Amino acid sequence: MTTANTRASIPTAARVHRFTYAIRNIVAEAQRVEAAGTRVRYLNIGDPVAFGFKTPPHLVEAVARALKDGRNGYGPSAGIAPAREAVAAEYTAKGFPVSADRVFITAGTSEGIELALSAVVDGGGDVLVPMPTYPLYTAVLAKLEAHARYYRLDPGRGWMPDLDHLRSLVTPATRALVVIDPNNPTGAVYPASVRRTLLSFADEHGLLVLADEVYGDLGFDGPVEPYGLLDPDAAIISFSSLSKAYLAPGWRTGWMAIGGSPRLDDVVAAVKKLADGRLCSTVPMEYAVSAALQGDRSHQLAFREALRARATLTVDRLRAITGVSCVAPTAAFYAMPRVQLPPGTTDESFVLSLLRATGVLCVYGSGFGLPAEDGFLRIVFLAPLEELAQIYDLMAAFTAQYMNA
Ligand SMILES: Cc1ncc(COP(=O)(O)O)c(C=O)c1O
Fold first, then answer.
1. Is 238 within 8 Å of 227 (Cβ atoms)?
2. Which of 27, 271, 337, 352 could form a disulfide with 326 if both were Cys (CB 3.0 to 4.6 A apart)?
3. Interacting residues of 211 by C-beta distance below 8 A, sequence separation 6+
4. How far is the CA of 293 from the centre of ligand 1 (A)?
5. pLDDT tens-digit series, residues 279-314
């Protein structure tokens, strides 16, 4: 008997190497900086709770009640009926008619996206994904051994999709178009004309539209309409969750709503099959969905105002730094400024140097798929205004030094 190899590392799958998750990966370096005694300001993860925004009490009560009432068993794989009905009623009231039997309650928007992509894309298939992107799409497509085909968002036009570029990417293997609107990482909201063009483009090519609307209630001017309102017969799946506008990201509770078009009947059946395979999402938290969608939403008014004030400060202060430009966000809690980098440097080296010198942690644009030499970075501006002001002081002093080094 030979035991020669039994202590060798267990090999890992190649798919793991096909994506990186910069938003979390960069934290390892931040922890080293912290261990060396510098206070780190974490502007990398879009978690409002981490910055003191509170989950509305009536949601907490709904979950606490469910726990006390012993709702601790498995639930239906598609979600409990009151949650599915509340989601259907919410979309229908907003002009996108959805029936409860086409709603699935998921472990956040994230699981909904994974279920939908798994249901429609085979290995080798193509999916059109915005760039800069939200890295989950790259990660899921890598797992499915499918290809992300990245269409450009144009900072020169307020981060609107480059529609000519999008059109040039379609192949016979293309299955779906991902739209993130309101957008992470750019904070952009697309006007109805752009949305209509995206929908008719998808229609023309028989593509499923995956509408990531997780920031839909966080437009600074009020909730943004769902895509389905523009064409209720379009082949659309909308995704959202309690994570952002209901301030409960740790609950991992969200939903997907599949449009009523008969073209989507097979997709509903495929998603149901996959959902059966993972049994159900977190049952006690599902009780918060109807509480959220049918209860008091006044926290959203306050949250949107807080976000608008932070966005204004962010844009004003960043634009005042020589060599920095920034498109003003109109929703969510992200800004994507651009630093005119000295030749030979990258966004990652800028971000790491900024972190080591000041403790300010942002994510480099190349973590969202942008060219490293373009000098983009993403800032999460959820910190209190006074703290943001200090952070932008630190960034201004550091950037001046970096440019002149
Ligand atoms: C565009 C986008 N989609 C999906 C998600 C995942 O959200 P959830 O917590 O609902 O899974 C996020 C989280 O930051 C996001 O920004």
1. yes
2. 337
3. 179, 181, 226, 227, 228, 236, 237, 238, 239
4. 18
5. 999 999 999 999 999 999 999 999 999 999 999 999
User: What residues have CB less than 8 Å from 76, skipping those under 6 apart?
Assistant: 280
From 136, 282, 333, 380, mutation site for ligand 1 pocket: most ligand atoms within 8 A of C-beta: 136
Q: For the segment 227-261, what is each residue's pLDDT rounded down to a tens digit?
A: 999 998 999 999 999 999 999 999 999 999 999 99
Tell me the torsion sign for CA atoms 235, 241, 244, 246: positive
Enter the DSSP assignment of 331.
B
Report whether 331 contacts 212 (CB < 8 A).
no
Single pTM value for the model: 0.95
Q: How far is the CA of 266 from the centre of ligand 1 (A)?
A: 26
How far does residue 214's CA lie from ligand 1's centre (Å)? 6
Q: CA dihedral defined by 294, 53, 135, 140, rounded to 10 degrees?
A: -40
Task: Give the Å distance between the CA of 247 and the centre of ligand 1.
Answer: 12
Q: Can you give the pLDDT at residue 26?
A: 84
Atom 14 of ligand 1 has which residue's CA nearest to it?
46
- The residue ranges of the chain whose pLDDT is under 50 are none
**Amino acid at the residue 111:** E
For the chain, give me the number of helices (H) and strands (E)? 13, 15
pLDDT recorded at residue 16: 80
Q: What is the 3-state secondary structure (H, E, C) of 192-229?
A: HHHHHHHHHHHHHCCCEEEEECCCHHHECCCCCCCHHH
Q: Are residues 325 and 335 in contact, defined by beta-carbon separation less than 8 angstroms?
A: no
Ligand 1 lining (C-beta closer than 6 Å): 46, 108-110, 134, 136, 180, 184, 212, 214, 241, 243, 249, 254
